Amino acid sequence: MERLKNKGLLFSKSGLTHEAGCDEAGRGCLAGPVVAAAVILKSPIPGLNDSKRLNEKQRKALAEIIKAEALAYHIAYVDENKIDEINILNASILGMHLALDGLSTRAEYILVDGNRFKPYLEVPHECIIKGDGLCQSIAAASILAKTARDTFMEKAHEQFPVYGWNVNKGYPTKVHVFAIKQHGFCEMHRKTFGIVRQMAQTTLFI
Fold first, then answer.
1. N or C: which end of the chain has fewer CB within 10 A?
2. Cβ of 53: how many Cβ atoms within 10 Å?
């Protein structure tokens, strides 16, 4: 087990060469997809950490380094309709499975951020609470998922500018919730979440 001194993040937990880290972004949002990433690193990358502990400039710079230096990576999207159909937990796990499917090198071992996962093929896995701040591969996945989702929501903002997604990225900020109250929800909102669910249910009975 190799530990980096600069941040204390583990590079390899299983000791296997093809250890994949998985994480997602966007679970708590009112709109847009949940985005998952899987990453197999071939060597340590200095500066990796939980994406939430990094600023936007750091995340973007590290995302480019990860893409250039990883042995394999893949980013997957599960849209708001599928989230409403199967719930956010299942959608998050589906996203991680899709990300693992997309790896050019098959994972020998899987590290997952959090405490819930479903077996992927016959590959052994381990769930690690707050793993994005403990393991390099999970941190790398968290950065790729976060930057990909932010970019997606910034582009979606161009189509639906009233909600301020270029700033709030779909999270339930006061500005976002107020905009939903003023303008209603749109096709990209998750109909089973928070105020959107309440408004959708009300609409059904009018």
1. C
2. 13
Read out DSSP for 97-123? Answer: HHHHHT-SS--SEEEEESS----BTTB
Locus of tokens 């009233």: 162
Please check whether residue 181 lies inside any domain of the structure. Answer: no
In-domain check, residue 199? no
Q: Could you report the per-residue pLDDT of 64-74, keeping only the tens digit for each?
A: 999 999 999 99
The H or E element that residue 55 is part of is none
Q: Over the range 63-81, which residues count as b (16 or more CB within 10 Å of their CB) and which as e?
A: beebeeebbbbbbbbbebe
Would 192 be classed as within a structural domain?
A: no
Helix axes 56-69, 136-159, angle to 10 degrees: 120
CATH of the domain at 15: 3.30.420.10
Please give the residue range of the domain that contains residue 148.
2-153
SS3 173: coil
Identify the sign of the CA torsion 166, 167, 172, 175.
Answer: negative
Structural domains of the chain, count: 1
CA–CA distance, 51 with 132 (Å, rounded to integer): 8
